[in-house]
Amino acid sequence: MLGPFLLKYHHMFVNSSSTGAFILSRNGRSADYVGASADDLVGTLGRFARQSDYRYFWFVEARSDREAAEIEQTWLHRYRPSDNPSRSSALHGSGWRCTIEGCPTCALATSVR
């Protein structure tokens, strides 16, 4: 994982049209939002830079959209960001199952759908 970097300069650190996962933060110390992009990481970060109050980001590029989604899920469990409305945003309809046995967050998200 690379960062933290200032979100307004995301284009200097992320390759165009890359796949990957990211963490957004207001203070540069804690994760407020975790996400993934299947094919346009720089564009996704750009939208957040223009439309949100996040100031910092971390990221990792992935080899596939599936890998990006798995990284996102891992980070959602690890960092428990306060601004994510759902714990499974990148994997809706993919058939992916949480690998953390007995995960109450994923069990709740699955039962709500």
What would your notes on this structure say?
This protein is an alpha+beta fold. It has one domain (2-112): GIY-YIG endonuclease (3-Layer(aba) Sandwich), CATH 3.40.1440. The chain has helices at residues 41-51, 65-79, 104-112, and strands at 2-6, 20-25, 33-37, 56-61. It has a four-stranded antiparallel β-sheet. The longest helix has 15 residues, at 65-79. The N and C termini lie far apart (31 Å). The relative contact order is 0.20.
Short key terms for the protein model shown above:
113 residues; alpha+beta; 19% strand; GIY-YIG endonuclease
Distance between the termini: 31 Å
Reported for the largest beta sheet, the result is: 4 strands, antiparallel
CATH class descriptor: Alpha Beta
Quaternary organisation of the protein chains: single chain
Strand order of the largest sheet: 1-4-2-3
CATH topology: GIY-YIG endonuclease
Q: What proportion strand?
A: 15-25%
- Helical content class: 25-40%
Query: CATH architecture, please?
Result: 3-Layer(aba) Sandwich
